[in-house]
Design a protein that fits this description.
Blueprint: H1 2-14, H2 21-34, E1 40-43, H3 50-59, E2 63-67, H4 82-93, E3 102-106, E4 109-114, E5 123-124, E6 127-132, E7 135-138, H5 141-150, H6 171-181, H7 189-195, E8 199-200, E9 203-204, H8 206-212, E10 225-230, E11 238-244, H9 247-262, E12 265-270, E13 273-278, H10 282-294, E14 304-308, E15 312-318, H11 337-344, H12 355-366, E16 370-374, E17 377-383, H13 385-388, H14 391-405, H15 407-418, H16 424-431, H17 435-447, E18 451-454, E19 461-464
Helix pairs in contact: 9-10, 10-12, 16-17
Length: 468
């Protein structure tokens, strides 16, 4: 549908009054054949509802409004005058912010091309609207806020932490930050905080809280990081788990140290000197941790997860990309500008916007494969040097990925790990699914050598094993 709309839009732009009438009629036939949808709206005549249609398209992925075609798709045409053109342009200009449109005449049909907005969210006198299928729906408060957050109009780190109690300000963290940033403490604390932009006339910001509060979690529930060390690749056998709330810098230092302690190092003695060859390059996972913490979507109320698996390190940063995936690695845009600016003043961060390249370069030099995945979150996976070229392990990793893609399978494994005598019917009840579905999933896990039954059905128990 999107490709068809793009193709038709190009055809509309290429056809002007000099084009033969039968070609224009052919184009109108194609438009009406497609009908109203995500990118097309029909209007028999000019009316005030154009406002919400323009706003809805601008807030979504763009589209075109065709004046002179009925809702049912019948071309009736209308008189296209300079006054009509001027009225339409005025409506677009009066949206907040203004919308730049393009008007194209196709015989007696007027196409109003509305591009996807670059300054979302857009509104009109009747409110905020979003194109959803063939309708322009009024947006709820939460939808407006979500769009504003996604487009960077509302930034978590710049918001005021209204309930912050100055008794919770940590002077040790503040002094340590100044030392790492090379800032002399020869000015009053308040003035320094204002210069750092974490203190304003309205109050103390969330950025200030995340950096300098004794317990940031009291004010920001997503301030913690969770570090987990697994003895396998399917996240079942947990060796160690830590959850800390030490502020931005403290969390970075802890996470880096946590991984460093658990990463194997190979040694070589050459010319009476010992040289270390870690399984993962420090610069790569340190940069990945920094990236995850400063670019995290703190509005989500979740926790940053840093996982050391048997064959990889996985760092999960909740928050969608702020730009197209095709621009990843070539374009940099900070979700939390203030958090980034504060860290960029220290030696924890080199030149902003170069983190992805440094991760890739460090992995290439050390012989690690690195993978970036994007969903509603941003995943960085560093693969072990010992496993990257090992075909057997690659097969294991492929099988593991297949196994854990289905979240239900992971839940079944976790339930069995907690209670090895649990029955299929009990699992079905907990997961709110049918017994047949659970039985099918169990058979799938058994076939893949992830799960096996020890003993009889009655009196026996389940055993979770690694796939092979």
């Amino acid at each position: 549908m999107s490709r068809e709309r793009v193709a038709i839009t190009r055809e509309v732009r290429s056809q002007r009054s000099e084009v033969m009438p039968h070609n224009n009629l052919h184009l109108i036939d194609k438009i009406t054949e497609l009908g109203e949808g995500q990118f097309i709206e029909f209007k028999e005549s000019f009316d005030k509802s154009l406002l919400k249609e323009m706003v809805a398209f601008a807030n979504a992925s763009g589209g075109a409004i065709y004046l002179g075609i009925t809702d049912s798709g019948t071309p009736k045409g209308l008189e296209i005058t300079n006054r009509l053109r001027s009225q339409i342009q005025d409506i677009a200009y009066n949206c907040d912010p203004s919308i730049i449109i393009n008007l194209v005449e196709i015989d007696n049909i007027l196409a109003i091309e509305v591009p996807e907005g670059k300054n979302k969210p857009y509104s009109c006198s009747n409110g905020f609207f979003m194109r959803m299928g063939a309708n322009s729906q009024k947006m709820t408060r939460n939808e407006i806020l979500t769009l504003a957050i996604k487009t960077g109009k509302v930034r978590f780190d710049e918001q005021i932490c209204n309930n912050f109690d100055w008794k919770d300000f940590d002077d040790e963290k503040f002094t340590y930050y100044l030392k790492r940033a090379g800032i002399s403490y020869n000015l009053p604390k308040e003035e320094i905080l204002r210069n750092l932009r974490v203190l304003t006339d309205e109050g103390f910001t969330n950025a200030g809280t995340l950096y300098f509060a004794k317990e940031p979690y009291k004010y920001v529930i997503s301030s913690k990081i969770r570090c987990i060390h697994f003895n396998d690749d399917i996240r079942v056998d947990i060796l160690d788990k830590k959850e800390v709330d030490r502020g931005i810098i403290g969390n970075i230092e802890f996470a880096v140290a946590y991984l460093k302690e658990r990463i194997p190092v190979r040694y070589e003695i050459k010319e009476l000197r010992r040289k270390e060859f870690p399984e993962y390059p420090l610069e790569a996972y340190r940069e990945a941790i920094v990236n995850s913490i400063v670019h995290f979507d703190y509005f989500m109320g979740d926790t940053i997860a840093i996982e050391k698996l048997k064959s990889s390190i996985v760092i999960n940063n909740k928050g969608e990309l702020l730009f197209p995936e095709s621009d990843f690695g070539k374009r940099s845009e900070a979700r939390n500008r203030l958090l980034v600016d504060l860290l960029a003043r220290t030696d924890f961060m080199e030149k902003a916007g170069t983190g992805v390249k440094r991760v890739r370069d460090a992995c290439t030099e050390n012989g690690n494969k690195v993978e970036f995945r994007f969903t509603d979150a941003f995943w960085i996976t560093l693969y072990s040097t010992d496993k990257v070229t090992d075909k057997v392990t690659e097969n294991v990793v492929d099988n593991v990925v297949d196994n854990v893609v289905d979240n239900r399978l992971k839940k079944i494994i976790n339930l069995i790990n907690e209670n090895k005598q649990i029955s299929a019917s009990q699992i079905a009840k907990i997961l709110n699914t049918s017994g047949r579905t659970v039985q099918r999933d169990i058979e799938k896990l058994k076939k893949r050598n992830i799960l096996k039954r020890v003993g009889a059905e009655k009196g026996g128990h389940w055993q979770v094993v690694n796939g092979d």
